[in-house]
Amino acid sequence: MNHLASMTLLLTALAAVPAAEPTFTELEALFRDQPMAARRHTGPLYWMHGDETQAQLERELDNVVEGHNGTFTAEPRPHRDWLGPGWYRDLDIALAYAKRSDLTMIIYDDYWWPSQMMGGRVPAKWGSKRLQSTELVIDGPRDIAEPGLGEENLVALIAGRVVEGDTIDADSLVDLTGALRDGVLHWQAPAGKWRLMRFFWRFNGNQGGQQRFISVDGASPDCVDWFLNTVYQPHYDRYKDDFGKTIVGYFYDEPETQGDWGSDLPKLIAERGLSLPRLLVGYRYKLAGEAQTAAFYTYLDCFAESWGRTMYGGMSRWCRAHGVVSMGHFMEHAGDLFSRGMSGGNMVQLQKYSDMGGMDLVVGQVHPGQRNMAFYQMPKLASSVSHVYHKADDIAFSETFGGYGQDLTYPEMKWLTDWQQVRGVNFMIPHSFNPRAPYDRDYPPYFANGGLEPRWPLYRVWADYTNRLSTMLTGGAHVAPVALLYIGQSVHVGRATRPEELTTALQDAQYDCDWLPYDAWEQDATLAASQIALHSERYRVLVVPPVEVIPYATLAKVRDFFAGGGVVVGYGFLPTRSATIGHDSAEITALREAIWGDARPSTAVCRTSAAGGRSYFLGAKPTPAELKAVLGGDAKVRPTLETVDGAVAPWLHVLHRRRAGRDVFLLCNQDHQATRTTSLRVTGDGEPELWDAMRGQATRPKFRRLDVGTVELDLTLEPSESTLLVFAPSRRDLRGTPGAGQPVPIVRQANPPAPAVDEQPHFPLADCSWVWFPESNAAQGAAVGPRYFRARLALPAERRVKAARFVLSADNEFTLYVNGAKVAERLGDGEAWRAPQTVDITKQLVAGANQLAIMAGNLPGTPPNPAGLIGRWKLEFEQGEPLTGAIDATWRAAATEQPGWTTAAYDDAGWAPAKVVAKHGDGPWGALDSSRRPFTLGSAKADPFEGRCELPADFDPAQSRVFLEVEDLAPEEAASVSLNGTYAGGFIGRPLRLEVTACAKPGANTVSILPFAPKSARLVLSKR
Fold first, then answer.
1. Partners of 711 in the beta sheet?
2. Predicted structure pTM score
């Protein structure tokens, strides 16, 4: 089958409008069979460090394909030669593999996270800028001839009359920038007290990336052009023939918005017809009266908009011009989505310029059963960006699972996937596939983990599941009854309530919603009687959040919607002040009263309009029951689906899309502990079918038709189970739920041997010392960069070496050579020094003289940033006592690399003795546990089930169906199943049942269940 446009990341995201829908027959085949075209919705991070061989890189890409991923993101983590020959050599390998395997590839756009800091390579001239000011107070009238006001980075010189409370009269502002002559101001100051304010900018310095790096200035076009020409363009120059084919996009990761000035900002202010002096003074000082709030809000809004359209708009424009997409996510965790330094104060203002919404799920932020509102609705944020800004096919992605640890279970992954998919996130980027695994500790899980993760067979089961969901939930049109105005910059200028709790209450009442930013509401939404039309969205309810300050045009359009017949809901408290210059609180009050009158919290209607509009004002924390009573009862706006008995089911979450002309509902039981049963009333066009995305099958449920467009059905969902409710145009001959059948017990066979774990013996570093090049006290702080160390090791010719081990560590990285051969290295991980590495050097040693050589490097870090090298070796002989030695002051050290320095022939007489900087156990490193290594294993132990059974000799798959059923599957209720050597599918969570008819045969059958063995298993034959 050809790659359908709506099924490929490239064509869907590049399309100016959503691509043509596939036929439903094509869609069903993608859902059922999962060809490569259906796997583009899962694309893991694939790490390259610059120290892997081609075989290592390709072996991990084998895992990417085996895991049923259709794309991947090539990421330096970090790469020792990023943008150098080594980087392109590794990218060549990945690209060639992708082309052979029909994978697509996305390029990570920086040295490591956070993006746009290039691992400390950004020159100051391209860095972010900070607005600053100085002032003089002048009493007029008087003639001014004030020197010293010139400034190379001058923005403006402004005078303003000082009034009560030491504030500045906004109407008195005078722009004196043009009155400067050679740095001297000539001005006749009028009567009164005046503040003369000089505004200028300075480079922000190392404020990004946890105060370590310079961040590219995203509000200045020349800085953005430099970044694109330095990072993006070289990839295109090398791979232009693959752009838009195998290479489909660039990925940015957690960039920051350090600074508060850029050269695009005054341009944007002028385009909007605003006063630069008013905004500058309102931002750095305080204007009198109501002018201050609007000026401060407007400055923040303009700065975020400038950064968004310049940096992310610039990246997207570059990408589209070169046939690929721009995608990524900000640090949206907790309060960072409103952080001015992390996301411009309003993450949506920046991300709307990218080609899709995006988010990050890391370090255990969300777990089944928990509702931490700092993280709980992150998927809604990402999907709303795609919905309200009309991103192609509503694609929204999640970089997911990073830092959850190697013990993350597949039932947890399944629940987290449902949690995201039911909120509209339909493109998963698992974190991660690591060629270093398992010898690494950098934010696992690693799903294949070097062949040592027993749960690896479950990854394909998970990938097929989420790809099937995305196949049905991408493209077409999202259907949601509620739009919730997104608070954006309002949070920075007054009281404001975040949207997560109300969004959760709406979902618990089965009302889906989108977060609707002010600009999309004002500029793109059209009002059609009682509906809001926004691209393909059609909302019937508009929620005004509790914000003290709101743009005038935003609230005026809310009034128009209400007057035209719309349903408007406020809660908590209502706006009182204007965020718009030229409009005051009295005008906001008039609009508010026109909508709600003299509102008091209640579930009763506040006001009605002549056209049938209704307004409501609820308490600070509306409950699902209250929302259902108000919206579904009084306002007659039905939820996405209804529980027949009227009870609110907070465990049942729903997403509705129109796909290939059909209504498709995703229903998720978000209770991970209990089976739930309910009766549902659903409005859909056609005949209902239940599609099981875990098993790739469709069945016909029992239902009751109420009228042409409404049915009722009973639904039981196991803990964490989900189903797709799909409406077909007419009744089809689908299989129903099978009844009782003939059980055939499966007899377990002996387990195959478990894979060996290559853990090597260790010995302690006690009595060793840390050493470094003698340029400074490295324990208190050292220069960034490599240093070089050498020592001779003599072996008695008459003694045969049985085993030789070298245990060592370096703060931060090292490469070990023995007799000129590179034996081991650990690069790029600033914290790996905590776990010394043991290296087998037996094969590299020879009788007589041997040369040991180590490159040790100090990476950029938080001051004081110490550096050190520590290690010892132990040689065991076939006879006699072992020989030991340590890195100490007898080693020779150099600051620069010399040709041949790793070999015994090199003369190091000119090198200095290494300097001992600390004993093992002393600061700053403390005692290291030499029994630890960068070795990542989960606690799960494989217990594969291999069994045999006999099906009747007259078994006919045309007449009977065969199901595998298991009991007491632990420690995780998840299985990958093969029958007679053929993969048959799998399941994650209950029901512990899988149809295997296609793989079954008469007579002897072999059954494989991985990675855990059930207490019992059987095949069940059921008549068709």
1. 682, 705
2. 0.86
Residue 19 — very low, low, confident or very high, per pLDDT cuts 50/70/90? Answer: low
**How many C-beta neighbours within 10 Å does residue 819 have?**
18
| Residue 828 in this model has a pLDDT that exceeds 70 | no
1003 DSSP β-pair partners: 951
CA–chain centroid gap for 735, Å, is 39
Q: Which two tokens stand for residue 778?
A: 């490295």
User: Residue 299: which of 221, 194, 219 has the closest Cα?
Assistant: 219
Mean pLDDT computed over 524-536: 95
- CA dist., res. 97 & res. 405, Å (int): 28
Q: Which among 579, 490, 484, 572 has a CA at the least distance from the CA of 532?
A: 484
Residue type, 217: D
Whole-angstrom Cα distance, residue 236 to residue 239? 5
DSSP state of 449: G
Tracing tokens 């059921």 back to the chain, one arrives at 1022
**For residue range 465-486, what is the model confidence (pLDDT) as tens digits?**
999 999 999 999 999 999 999 9
CB 362 within 8 A of CB 431: yes
Q: What is residue 53's three-state secondary structure?
A: coil
Residue with tokens 């298993």: 1017
Cis peptide before 35 (omega within 30 of 0): no
The b-or-e profile of 201-229 (16+ CB within 10 A means b, else e) is bebbbbbbbeebbbbbbbbbbebbebbbe
Residue 699 phi, psi dihedral angles, 5° rounding: -130, 165
DSSP of 717-769: E-TT-EEEEEEESS----B------EEEE-EE-PPPPPPPP-PPP----TT-E
CB atoms within 10 A of CB 716: 12
Structure-block tokens of residue 103: 């994978």
Burial class of residue 78 (count of CB atoms within 10 Å of its CB; 0-12, 13-18, 19+): buried
Residue 188 CA to residue 863 CA, distance in Å, equals 50
Identify which of 870, 874, 900, 896 has the alpha carbon closest to the alpha carbon of residue 885.
874
Task: Single out the residue of 556, 437, 318 nearest to residue 57, CA to CA.
Answer: 437
Q: What percent of the chain has pLDDT over 70?
A: 95
C-alpha–C-alpha distance, residues 556 and 587, integer Å? 9
**pLDDT given at position 764:** 75
Q: Indicate if the pLDDT at residue 647 is higher than 80.
A: no
Q: Quick one: DSSP state of residue 287?
A: B
**579 in helix, strand or coil?**
coil
Cβ neighbours of residue 667 closer than 8 Å, sequence gap 6 or more: 641, 652, 653, 654, 715, 717, 722, 723, 724, 725
- Please classify residue 752 by burial: count the beta carbons closer than 10 Å to its beta carbon, then call 0-12 exposed, 13-18 middle and 19+ buried: exposed
Distance, in Å, from the CA atom of 233 to the CA atom of 251, rounded to the nearest integer, reads: 14
Q: Which residue has the higher pLDDT, 927 or 551?
A: 551
Length of the chain measured in residues:
1024
Q: What share of the chain is helix, strand, coil (3-state, %, to 5)?
A: 25, 35, 40
CB of 136 within 8 A of CB of 146?
yes
| 133/155 Cα distance (integer angstroms) | 10
- For residue 908, CA distances in Å to 814, 898, 905 come to 20, 10, 9
C-alpha radius of gyration, the chain, whole number = 33
Distance between CA atoms of 699 and 701, rounded to whole angstroms? 6
- Give CA–CA dist 600/619, Å, rounded: 9
723: left (phi over 0), alpha (psi -120 to 50) or beta: beta
**Cα(260)–Cα(268) distance, integer angstroms:** 14
CA angle 961, 669, 732 (to 5 degrees): 40
Mean pLDDT across the chain: 92
What's the CA gap between 701 and 731, in Å, rounded?
11
Decide if pLDDT at 3 tops 50: no
Which regions of 312-388 does DSSP assign to beta strands (E)?
Answer: 325-329, 357-362
Q: Kindly report the backbone phi and psi dihedral angles of residue 491, in degrees, each rounded to the nearest multiple of 5, phi listed first.
A: -65, -20
Strand 912-913 versus strand 549-550 pairing type? unpaired
